[in-house]
Amino acid sequence: MTALEISALRKRYGALEILKGIDLTLEEGGFLVLVGPSGCGKSTLLNTIAGLDSVTSGEIRIGGQIVNGLHPSKRDIAMVFQSYALYPNMSVAQNITFGMEMRGIPKPERDKAVAEVAKKLQIEHLLARRPSQLSGGQRQRVAMGRALVRKPSVFLFDEPLSNLDAKLRVDMRVEIKRLHQTTNSTIVYVTHDQIEAMTLATKIAVLKDGEVQQVGTPAQIYDEPANLFVADFMGSPAMNLIDGTVIRQGGETMIRLDRREHPPIVLPVPAGVVADRLPADGKVIFGIRPEAVNDSESIDRKAKSVSKFEANVEIVEPAGADTFVVIHVAGKELTARMRSDTSVRVGESHTFAFNLDKAVLFDPATSARI
Amino acid sequence: MSAADLITSAPDREPARHSLLTRIVIYGLLVIFAFVYLIPLVVMVMTSLKPLDEVTGGNMFALPQHLTLEPWIKAWGEARIGVSDTAGIYGYFLNSIKMVVPAVLISTVLGALNGFVLTKWRFPGHKIVFGMMLFACFIPFQSVIIPMAVILGGLGDIGRSLIDLTGYSFGFGSPTVNLVIVHVIYGLGFTTLFFRNYYEIFPTELIKAAMIDGASFFQIFRRILLPNSTPIFIVTVIYQFTNIWNDFLFGSTFAAGDQAPMTVALNNLVNTSTGVVEYNVNMAAAIIAAAPTLFVYIVGGRYFVRGLMAGAVKG
Fold first, then answer.
1. Which of A73, A90, A159, A162 to mutate to test the interface with B (most CBs of B within 10 A)?
2. How many CA atoms does the CB half-sphere of B224 hold within 13 Å?
3. Same domain for A211 and A326?
4. Is A340 inside any structural domain?
5. Most buried in the list A262, B111, B171, B225, measured by CB within 10 Å?
6. Which of A161, A195, A228 is the C-terminal boundary of a domain?
7. Is residue A136's pLDDT more than 80?
8. What is the pTM of this model?
9. Residue of B213, B221, B226 to mutate for A, most A C-beta atoms under 10 A
10. Number of domains present in the structure of chain A
11. Phi/psi at A112 (nearest 5 deg)?
């Protein structure tokens, strides 16, 4: 069943259009992550779902019911804010039950609900404290408790981890994922962190300038980005994007990557590319993830199409689990994700290989994937 | 580098001799200014504790020979104020209390509401409305007296009609109520300014969270905003209390005779042109008149600085 349905949603502030016709659906139990750079409209979109912002046109349905005109408290949603927004003058227990109190639910029932949620989130010992007496992670839990106690049909998370330090952020990410799995709740989650998006989502919507660039599973977004923006935005280090030319060689269509000091790299067209859609002027952008570039002996053995080439090693960045190696191809830096015990040395020439199964091509004119 | 670091590391950079000299100059100036500011109060207190012959015959700075509370008792309950038959200033003291407490509370709460609306429930033109309220802060008292007198006169007419109809005026035309109205209107500009600036930096996410929790406008105001406004609330109360308590112009214009506030009564007591001038009684009355504002400041003073500084430093 569809828990959330957004159709042709537009939001305008005066002449400025923030959301330019958004269409999204989320099935019950799904985890939708709205991701994009700052100013892309993702928080505005979340606020319109919550009812904290009005919409200019379009429809929002929660559980099948149109909620456009409904007050936030009547939409059957709960929201976790970036700053947690815990009421500083109330204890943790009062914070969690404030909404129930406003809805006129009697005290014994509230106490029961708070005990249940506190047990689930392991915050029973904190119930009498004020928010100012809690650590960042504890505040985060309380904020989630306040949302959980409502048992809403949709949870809304607005960058809930961005105020935490790096280690705690990873812990809380796991926590949110566990919460989603154990409660099977429906979640809409806003973030600008593409790792959060990849790890948490069952469905990702990449936004830019108020438009949805691509909606899909994390794997689809990562392996088959719809356009250059999605390819560049998702993944760290980012996907290598190199200018190439389509050439005909012995009756076969090939891609040539020109280089200044080395002979050009000539590659077969990656699998999955529709040959008819190659642009007429022959200019393409060749995209390959750093992990699909390696030394020739470490490249994925299951790869069907591998292309080898020589290149000078410019920078070696050991990152613990991997080593990032930067080389130059077609006037652009190209990053390879290699084993941490790789033998490459700065300044030396080395044989690299592309795993072309994972490569994609883009049309530079439209920036769409071919 | 925090402020504490700056202070502790200062002597390392400055030669010790220089530091000592600086200290002597600083403390010397502080002592001189404290003396200058305290002398009038000391003279007032000493004079109020002397019998009259000691005041008229002796040195102003001399310590009292015979300590007496007689001037205080006389000022409070016996002294003749102006041409009135009422004895002592205590009646006027109560007038002032009856006027100041509602005026301060009403103007402060209305200012808080205005600040809430102007920052968290913005409407088209909110800047113009706020600008006009700010403008109210700068209108001189004197220029509003005549229009205000006309309006209060109209209220008095309503009061008289109500007495004819029901036998009760419902406060219309009462000098105390009139003064409360005047001070609330005049104070709104300031209280709105204080609360608007405080709520400007109040996290909007708290309001949104409360909206999702289903709290209404007034529930958010009462349960979320007001409990988190203690510093600015106290600043506003101190400011309004001091201003309204010390007001003389409106008090002397709109409340006459037995209904006059403390400041007017003090003037009538001190400016009596008949008989011997009882300086000791006058001093005692003046201290009584100043006591409430001092009391309010001592009780809420630590919030005053904190509230004025709120938002100046992040953290």
1. A73
2. 29
3. no
4. yes
5. B111
6. A228
7. yes
8. 0.81
9. B213
10. 2
11. -65, -45
